[in-house]
Amino acid sequence: MSRGKIPVIETFGPTIQGEGMVIGRKTMFVRTAGCDYRCKWCDSAFTWDGSEKHRIRMMEPAELFEELIQLAGNNFDHVTISGGNPALIGEAMNDFIMLLQEHGMKIGLETQGSKWQDWFLLVDDLTISPKPPSSGMETNFEILDEIIARLNPAAFSLKVVVFDDHDFAYAKKVHKRYPAANFYLSVGNANPNEKGDISSRLLKSLDWLWGKVIEDPEMNNVKALPQLHALVWANKRGV
Ligand SMILES: C[S@@+](CC[C@H](N)C(=O)[O-])C[C@H]1O[C@@H](n2cnc3c(N)ncnc32)[C@H](O)[C@@H]1O
Ligand SMILES: Nc1nc2[nH]cc(C(=O)O)c2c(=O)[nH]1
Ligand code: SF4
Ligand SMILES: [Mg+2]
């Protein structure tokens, strides 16, 4: 029995998860529309800036699952839900996750940690990605504290995008505040609309970030990664 619909802006895959705790795994993507943030460098701004409003479809969980099967048949057993902020969606998302799990799927989900949902507890690979100063957003640490207190440290990870020294200092602060959480740093892509190969630019940023981690004794237990899909496929959409 479904309770409501999910605003979907795109589905794609199978592809390779390019970021964080599930990096390298084959997965399908469901991207929801709408975000409570407006990050300056958001690589998925089309989910919230109105530019692709016409592509948003309100979908029943069963209809959305059927679309994934149409796209990929049996060629997947993992689904990543991203956005926008999928945590803006309540019961319909709960139902979609349960439906996927009934079909033996593992679920990854990306959210920024601005809002709790009870269904977070169902997600196999939950990534909470609080936003650094370069985003122009401000983290509400009271809310983030509450979210992280409710989660089992083994069942989620933190992922902070880093563009500059201020972002690195913010990442350190977050890591220190939640020492039990698996912690990932992710290289910022300063121009998510650039055409053509961006690998040398991203590798240069990764070199800088690795240098920062290597010299910092407070960052001994973190994993610093590039957006692997952007290294291989640049700013291509739908991968
Ligand atoms: C598009 S967001 C959607 C999910 C959720 N709103 C969030 O931000 O976590 C998915 C991931 O992409 C990251 N991201 C967005 N723009 C980026 C950029 N220009 N460079 C690197 N990572 C970026 C976000 O920080 C987040 O971890
Ligand atoms: N391949 C691939 N990996 C990703 N990891 C997180 C993504 C996202 O936009 O949430 C993403 C994405 O858009 N594509
Ligand atoms: S929170 Fe995520 S989707 Fe929302 S603007 Fe920031 S990066 Fe984009
Ligand atoms: Mg992306």
TrEMBL record:
EC number, UniProt record: 4.3.99.3
Single GO MF annotation: magnesium ion binding
Annotated CDD domains: Radical_SAM
Keywords assigned by UniProt, alphabetized: 4Fe-4S, Iron, Iron-sulfur, Lyase, Magnesium, Metal-binding, Queuosine biosynthesis, S-adenosyl-L-methionine
Annotated binding of substrate, by residue: 16-18, 31, 82
PROSITE patterns associated with the record: RADICAL_SAM
InterPro entries noted in UniProt: 7-CO-7-deazaguanine_synth-like, Aldolase_TIM, Deazaguanine_synth, rSAM, rSAM_sf
Record-given protein name: 7-carboxy-7-deazaguanine synthase
Organism, scientific name: Heyndrickxia ginsengihumi
